[in-house]
Amino acid sequence: MTDIQSLIRPRFLALIRQRLSMKKKVGLFFFSGIGLMIWSVIFYVSYRVLTYFKNIESIGDYLSFKLLSMILLTLFSLLIFSAILTTLSKLFLSKDLGLVHGLPIPSENIFIARWIESTFDSSWMMILYTLPAFIAYGIVFKAPLLYIIFLLVALMPLAMIANGISSLIVMPVVVILPATRIRSLFVLFGLGVFVTLYIAFRVMQPERFVNPEGFASVILYLRTISMPSSPLLPSTWVFDTLKSSIHAKYSDAIFHSGLLWSFGMLLFCINTIVARFIYFNGYSKSQTAQSRIISGNNLFLYQIMSQVSGPVRAIFIKELKTFWRDQTQWTQLFLIGALIIIYLYNFSVLPFEKSPLNAVYVENLFSFLNIALAAFVLTAIGARFVFPSISHEGMAFWIIQSSPVSIRTYLWIKWLCYFLPLFLLSEILIIMTNFLLHVNMFMMVLSVLTIACIVPGVVALGIGLGAAYPDFKSENPTQTVTGFGGLMYMFCASAFFGSIVLLETYPVYLIFNAHFKRVFLKDIDAIMIVFCFSTCLIICLFVLFAPMFFGEHRLKRNVQARDEEDIDDDNDDDNEKASLSGIETETRRNILLSRVYKIKSGKANRYPAKNVFEEIQSCH
Amino acid sequence: MIKLIHLYKQYGQNIAIDNIHLSVSPGEIFGFIGPNGAGKTTTIQIMAGLLAPTSGNVILSGISMNSDPVNAKRLVGYIPDRPYIYEKLTGIEYLRFIADFYQISHDDFTKKSSRLLKEFSLEDRQNELIEAYSHGMKQRLIMISALLHDPPIIIVDEPMVGLDPVAIKLVKNVFKQRSHEGTTIFLSTHTLSLAEQICDRVGIIHKGKLIATGSMEDLKSSAKSGTEDLEDIFFQLTLETKMESIP
After folding, report:
1. What is the pLDDT of residue A205?
2. Dihedral sign from CA coordinates of B114, B120, B121, B125
3. Nearest CA to B142 among B124, B163, B127?
4. Which residues in chain A touch residue B99, judged by CB atoms under 8 angstroms apart?
5. Which helix (H) or strand (E) covers residue B115, if one does?
6. From A292, A396, A404, residue closest to B132, measured CB to CB
7. pLDDT above 70: residue B193
8. Of the candidates A281, A526, B4, B229, which lies 20 to 30 Å from B155 by C-alpha distance?
């Protein structure tokens, strides 16, 4: 037990003892404010939705509890996914594992310490941001205060169970598959996530519940929405705990939370036993034979880019190869893939024929809104891949700095690397959704051109702001998007495509109006149309160049300031030393000076101890 | 070939480099020695174009690093003290990446890379991902990449860190050979014996100031009697400077 405490202790000490500069305090305050805002929005939306459901006679409660069951099932799936990645990293890939395994501690104790850490790391954020929805349930259903206690008592073992299942999957897989196949492992997990998300989505079929006519009878509809989830799922036990505590059936709530805790503890015990036998083996395997032979003679990419200038070819091929070989990117690719498939699926099932409005009008309206939606998908992809691309250079950024390429050229080459695939992806997305919507030629051309104008700006925002706020020391550069720069990127990109879509609204309305009424446009309308589209073009050009310019200047300044920060840190240490008591300092100085005088007069060893002079100066 | 003109670099209140002014001739190996935090790496990073000086200039073969950094960098092969490179590339891919920046033709690259990879004993590992390389192997790969375009100037920060004795001997020979062929080499080091063995001239930097320059003979003659090796001269000079600052 002492071993486990000692292993977890540095984590707490690092939290307690971190020195927060004014800049960091402001940042912390800012992000706490944003976090609180998101939390409040989730609470407000949940409260409004539940109040609405509650007011629907007869089926209101059924709908609310069906929603609760869906939230819990989704939460449980996401907890498992998050835990798989966290346990893999904490148990096998962390850089400090070499040091920890060198200590005279049984490997199962190391496992337990890491397991506790990963349970916390993989779940705290998800639980924190689902809490407002659960609290809203309590308020809307006028639950007793004990509901909050049962809520916490139920969510904690859910996180334990998710982590327990994940580590039971991860440990044997790492032992079976050699470390050289770690990429395959990630692909496997990515596929698992994709399939889980897709199945969860399809199993829930959320579109059915708002459409009672789709069911053969009212009884069938009621039976479907009141049907409990599988009793073997831990999320069902949480559901039963919460539902029982809302209705003040405490004995039932205790029974279901008891189920959760006992299963959580059972999984913990099984994990500890499994870890005793295979954890160190897996760790050992993951540390050895990491070399991967890759054919260096594959010159295909070099040949097809033979006419391109050297630096462009160099950076383009480097980006492509490092991207495909970096396993952490794979899971993200699968998630993005899932997002796009669900996005396209939604368009294919839109019931236009049931709309009371003109189908052509609705389809074109959706097509117009789809431009914003596609731009949002593009922004989300940019946040994952484009924004962190400068930070991905890491400590190897010196290579770019010392190479005969200016920072400006480098940033534009990076822009080109991401522009081409994102342009293709966005255009394919918009054309496919337009086909699914059966839009007319005008809307097709408009949306294709609008997206073609938005993509360069969104990519420039990603590269420019990524260069302005880089983190070359981060172990996981993808996470830089959660910082201030990432937030700025999301905000600026959303404002950018939002303003373009808004500006296009009026001319599109005028053109459609003229088309449906079969009249010619007036002169003033034509001028307005030209004005709006020209303003859009100017905004697009501004957003293409301004962030790149900003990023270039900030990056140059940041690189210069990096060493300055290190020196400032050293000064902080000196200040701490200087805070010794006055008498102590004076005595120390006298001792040191007498040594120097002895050396000067030749009565002592001519080489004083290292840093003796710095120490004398610090005594002033 | 290399001219440092009144180079000055200040970080906030701290002066990292204080008016360094020196020149290094073509084909010369210049050793830059000094204690930790003396300003060696800052000077080298300014010379390689990684940092901008607060004032002063670096002229490489007549090209100013301040006004024409891209062309100045074409003349330099820079070897940093810590081998951070793109771990997801193989050794040969990394070399090809560097070669593309210096517009080396395909045939030229094939010839030079295979010769250098053989010379630095990395021929068998060239198709492996760099993440599997040891510290010394990465350092050797960086050296190959710095020599690939036959630069007239090589700037090296702590060249022997992480190298085994065989590699150290090899690097010494490579530097000597390149120097004979006319390449100017500017190296910073803690290893005084290395500076003594291969440098034509040495500069001692302390607290950002260049406190002594000259050949080994010059330094020995300027030091107090009885000092025979560079280590003695180094300690004596840095000690004197420190003592002067104490009342």
Report:
1. 59
2. negative
3. B163
4. 310
5. helix B106-119
6. A292
7. yes
8. B229
